[in-house]
Design goal:
The protein has 130 residues and is an alpha+beta fold. Helix content is 22%, strand content 48%. The protein is built from 3 helices and 8 strands. Strands 1, 2, 3, 4, 5, 6, 7 and 8 form an 8-stranded antiparallel β-sheet that branches. A hairpin with a 5-residue loop joins strand 7 and strand 8. The radius of gyration is 14 Å and the shape is globular.
C-alpha cells in the first residue's frame, strides 16, 4: 500500500474513473492519504463523482510519472467519521478553504480489494494487492 501511496503522491495528479450508467467518467484527482492502515481518497458529496461511486463503488485510478505508470482497481467505501475526514484535510491544508470535517459535503473513501499494476515500457509489471 505504501508503494501505491508514494507513487500517487509523487504524481500529484491521478485520473479516477467511475461509471455513470454504462458510460465511463474520468476526471483528475489529487488527494490520497493513509489512515488507520487504509488508502483513502477525498471528494465532495455534491459532486457527480460521489453520486457515481454511491451507485457503483468500483473505481479505477491511473497515473503516470513520465516514465512509469500505475493502474489501480478498487472498491471505494465511504468512511463518514470525522477523524478520517480531518486526517485527509490535515494532509491537504489547501482544501480547508473548501471543505471541513464537520460539513455535510466532505467525503472520504477508503479503497478495498485493491489490485494495483505498476508498469513501464521496460521490465515486467508489478502487481500489488491489498
Amino acid at each position: 500500500m505504501q508503494e501505491v501511496y508514494d507513487f500517487l503522491r509523487k504524481c500529484e495528479t491521478y485520473f479516477l474513473t467511475t461509471m455513470e450508467g454504462d458510460q465511463p467518467r474520468v476526471r483528475p484527482f489529487g488527494t490520497v492519504d493513509i489512515f488507520e492502515g487504509k488508502l483513502y481518497i477525498q471528494t465532495g458529496k455534491v459532486k457527480n463523482v460521489s453520486k457515481q461511486i454511491s451507485e457503483n463503488p468500483k473505481i479505477e485510478i491511473c497515473a503516470f510519472d513520465g516514465n512509469n505508470w500505475i493502474r489501480v482497481q478498487a472498491i471505494a467505501v465511504e468512511d463518514d467519521r470525522r477523524e478520517a475526514k480531518q486526517h485527509m484535510l490535515d494532509a491537504y491544508p489547501e482544501l480547508q478553504a473548501m471543505y471541513a470535517a464537520d460539513d455535510d459535503n466532505t467525503q472520504v473513501l477508503y479503497l478495498k480489494d485493491v489490485v494495483a499494476t505498476m508498469a513501464s515500457l521496460s521490465g515486467e509489471p508489478k502487481i500489488i494487492r491489498f
